[in-house]
Amino acid sequence: MVTVYILINCTAGKTLSAAKKVAKIKGVKEAAAITGPYDIIVKAEAADLKDLGEFVIEQIQAVEGVERTMTCVAV
Amino acid sequence: MVTVYILINCTAGKTLSAAKKVAKIKGVKEAAAITGPYDIIVKAEAADLKDLGEFVIEQIQAVEGVERTMTCVAV
Amino acid sequence: MVTVYILINCTAGKTLSAAKKVAKIKGVKEAAAITGPYDIIVKAEAADLKDLGEFVIEQIQAVEGVERTMTCVAV
Amino acid sequence: MVTVYILINCTAGKTLSAAKKVAKIKGVKEAAAITGPYDIIVKAEAADLKDLGEFVIEQIQAVEGVERTMTCVAV
Amino acid sequence: MVTVYILINCTAGKTLSAAKKVAKIKGVKEAAAITGPYDIIVKAEAADLKDLGEFVIEQIQAVEGVERTMTCVAV
Amino acid sequence: MVTVYILINCTAGKTLSAAKKVAKIKGVKEAAAITGPYDIIVKAEAADLKDLGEFVIEQIQAVEGVERTMTCVAV
Amino acid sequence: MVTVYILINCTAGKTLSAAKKVAKIKGVKEAAAITGPYDIIVKAEAADLKDLGEFVIEQIQAVEGVERTMTCVAV
Amino acid sequence: MVTVYILINCTAGKTLSAAKKVAKIKGVKEAAAITGPYDIIVKAEAADLKDLGEFVIEQIQAVEGVERTMTCVAV
Asked: Going from the N-terminus, what domains does chain B have, and what CATH number goes with each?
């Protein structure tokens, strides 16, 4: 099991709605809108690194308003 | 009362007009166009963190030319 | 109650030991060593912003190996 | 011969497809999708700096989904 | 007289053409396409800070392909 | 008259004490400890750019705990 | 097997000597001194994420002159 | 001939003295103290990339107060 933290930047004005949608994605344990250089922080779990790549890229990045994601893998 | 400083990046060519519009938003105490990695610096006050989230996201990010905002909370 | 995420950079070689110490600080709900531009991610709770300032600055920054902290406030 | 490493950011959702296309460009020795602040890392070789400028700008940046490239020259 | 260095990011694929156009703007002493986190570096001179604001924003940012400018003032 | 905003990073654990000392420096109009990538934000005024260089470098950077300063000039 | 790219910053003046030492560490496939925001780029392989954490932190960060490492995991 | 721009960060309080020393190094065409995220900007020329590596690392980084250098190669 791989645990990751994903720092997300959103299009201006889309943070709150994107955070709500991201929170409902399978594997996402937590999603919060935050101040500072990132707009949303997500904690998620994936089966392995391959799953992570497809999970992050295909699910979270498909949410409207998500502009950039940066994935940090717990080690 | 929460005091925040908001560092704003604008679409190329929109800084001066965006700064003027941001300065008129309720709660904004100061808005200046600046050199360096950010285009506008704003000082603003909100009643609490919930108010801040909605204030920043709904008012400032709705200004034409505002591309990204980074909020720094005074502690 | 204020919830914050704190992104921490450590002195080279001190990440794992610092993460263990940070995890024991009162108010810290979670502390994980991560890949990417930050070395540790922390989720913490403080009573209010004043408490946060003193909490972050006096407790986490006092841990050996903690070089920089960036606090992101949940909104 | 100039060896360069190119760190690429992609439009959300385009990383995997862009990485595959970049890998086929002449001069590209390696292209991998990665976690962290960049989406793809490329190792490439060019005859000289002039060639590099035209190579990077005209070939890689023309790939769909490539948003920004940062070139690091091996010294 | 104010001397400034302007670090410019361009839309992917527009660096070389933008550098040529920027080089012809009045007050620009030098414009070079570069590797690394910025795409073009410009040295320019303005009569004063007010002139600088209008010079940078209205002339350089109007060039096709210029996405962001960061101005550094010589002190 | 030149108005500047200075974003300051401090040595871990020194933010609050440094902010108090910076606030007393001549020309400093405001100094606040903040969350996010910078530790202190300062608003200051200098007679001209030469004055600014010497003001920033010699006064603020001499405060114990000040590690880096980034000056943004109001335009 | 986990493949990672590690972007390293060195103390001023230590890049070339650190790159040579890092290249000899077990698991490191490639280490090159580069221009731009990072000083050395490393390609390495680890058995799994746990191994990676200990590998990066204990071996590379122990090299004299290595100031910061940022690990990017191939996905 | 390789032309490079080097963006330098200095230890707090050392910018002006470091800029003067860097300006005297062979190959340096221009060195100016600047506002923003970097403290000094240098324009320099080297015979080739190998020369550049040794030139940057051995000469500029040896100047007292120089903490980090980022080299951008003109293409």
From this structure: 2-73 (3.30.70.920)
